[in-house]
Design goal:
Blueprint (H helix, E strand, L loop, with lengths): L6 H21 L4 E11 L3 E2 L2 E2 L1 E4 L9 E9 L8 H8 L5 E4 H4 L6 H26 L8 E4 L10 H13 L12 E4 L2 E2 L5 E2 L4 H10 L4 E5 L3 H6 L6 E5 L2 H13 L8
Parallel strand pairs: 5-8, 8-11, 11-12
Antiparallel strand pairs: 1-5, 1-6, 2-3, 4-7, 9-10
GO molecular function: ATP-dependent peptidase activity; serine-type endopeptidase activity
Keywords: Signal
Pfam family, one: Lon_C
Amino acid sequence: MLSRLTRRQKAAGLAVPVAALLATAGFAPLPFSVAQPGMTADVLGENKGEQVITISGAPVRETGGQLRMTTIEATSPDTRVGLPDVIDSWFSTDRAVMPRDSVYPSGDSVTEIEQYNREQMEASQDEATRAALNYLDREDDGIQVTLELADVGGPSAGLLFSLGIVDKLNGDGSGGDLTGGRVVAGTGTIDEDGTVGPVGGVPLKTQAARRDGATVFLVPRDECSDARAELPEGLRLVPVTTLKGAVDALVALEQGTGEVPSC
């Protein structure tokens, strides 16, 4: 037999199931990762005792300033993330809750994910080298580039690798450094043709960059709004879509001529 319940009776009837659901969710693992600002590395220098960019077959410039690639540090693929972790991160400016599948490939083991990230990094390094040599019109000069960056996976350092190669081989084209002596940081994938792509986790990367002394941050243009959301004080955003655009912006910033794009 069906009966009509009053609003108060309905609310009372729902209270137990909702409470039970929340209690269960509090202990159940959720499909999220918790991320925070990660390490940064100057691609013009050394990381963990290894030169990041080594070039042979062409003269290499002495460079000034820094070009820092940025990372996020996320909970490992097999880490249990529960509702308390998610709620706590929502109220924190230096942590972010991200869908696990946006951080790690879905359905793979930890070993497979680590291998995938290594392969992504290696492919990114190859693309970055080709993009830089193509930009300089030196792809046929027999230049050999070796890139070493320990304990970092994925493709998001591509833009900074390319800029580091350009700076070491050509600087600003007039004898100066691309950095102008500054600490410049950034993120972005790169294709062989020099196209810069989005990466995710930008608000956390800007925090890592500022923490490590950067005053300029190169960001894929499509992620400007994300970068502005929690932009640290003292960090200037420079949006880019291509390697050429990034070089032009840095030269304009260094020489004080031309327009420097902004978000």
